[in-house]
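Review form for a predicted model. The reviewer records the input and the model, then writes brief findings.
Reviewer: anonymous (R2)
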Amino acid sequence: MRSPFVRALTLWLILASLGVLACDLSTVTGLLGTGTTSKPRVTILAPTNNAQFKEGDEIQVQSTSTDSTGIVRVELLVDGATVATDVPPIPKGQTLFTLIQRWKATPGQHTLGVRAFNAAGVASDPALVTVVVTPLAVLPTPLPTQVVLPPLGVSPTVPRPTATVSLPTLTRAPTRPPASPTISAPPGVYATAIRVEPASPKRNQPVMFHVTFLNTTGAPQMYRWRVIIFPPDSKNAKGDTAFLDSTIAPGTSTLTSPDNWTIRGPGPCEDYIARVFWIDENKQPVEFLKPDRSGGPAVGFQICP
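Model under review:
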C-alpha cells in the first residue's frame, strides 16, 4: 500500500498538470480568437466575361457590393494593380453599394477585378472578368511625291495664267438655333429622377414616389422594383415601398410606387433620402443608375409633425 504522503503527492502533481494545460489552452484560444468576421460579397454586372473592346475605349465596370456591416471602399483592379478607388456617399458605409468605375483600355487581354472593404476593414474576394482589347489599325506612312525634272537644255513649260473669275458675294444664311439637348446612353434601362408626393409629407401620412425611367433598348422591358428610404449618413434603411412589377416602355416614362410607406407616431421633423432599386435574377436589390452612369438618382425630403 502506498503511504498517505505518496497518494497526496501524486494527486498534487495531477492537479498541477491540469492547471498548466488549462493555461496553455486559454492562451491558444486568446491568440486565435473566437469571433469570425464575414467577407463582403462583390458581383460584376458589366462588362461580361471575354467582352471585346478597342484600344482607347473607356471600359465601364459596373459592380454591386454587399455586407451587413457596411461597404466603405471599392477598388478596381487591372491585372492585379489598383487603378481606381471609390467610397459610398454615406461615410459610415452602405450595406448595398452599386457603382461604375472606369478604365481606359490598352491593347491585350486583361483581367478586371473589383474588391470591396467593409467597416471592419475586411476585404472581399475579388470578382473577376476577362476583357480583350484590340489595337487600333496603324495607317501606312505615305511615300513622298516624286518630282520629275525636264532634260538638260530644255526650258520648262510655263503654264498660262488662268482667267480670274469673280464670284458674287454670298449673303450669310441666318444662324439656326441649336437643337434641344437629348439624353443619350448605351442600351439599357435607367432612372433619371425621383419625386415625392406629397411635396411636404407629414407623420402618419402615406408617401408615394414618382420615378422617371429612360429605356434605350428600343423594346419594352419588365422590371420588379421598389423605392428604399434611408436616413442621412446611415447605412440601414428606414423601410421601403412594396414591390411593383412594371413594363417600362421605350423612351421616357414615369411610374408611381405604392403608398405603403409612412413614419408613424409623434416626433420632430426628420430628414430622409429615397433611392430606387430593381431585383435581379438572384433576388438581390440592384440600384437603378442614371444615364451617365455616375450613380443612382436620389431625392431628399423631410417628414414633419
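Findings: The mean pLDDT is 83.
Further findings: The CA atoms of residues 140 and 186 lie 33 Å apart.
Recommendation: see findings above.
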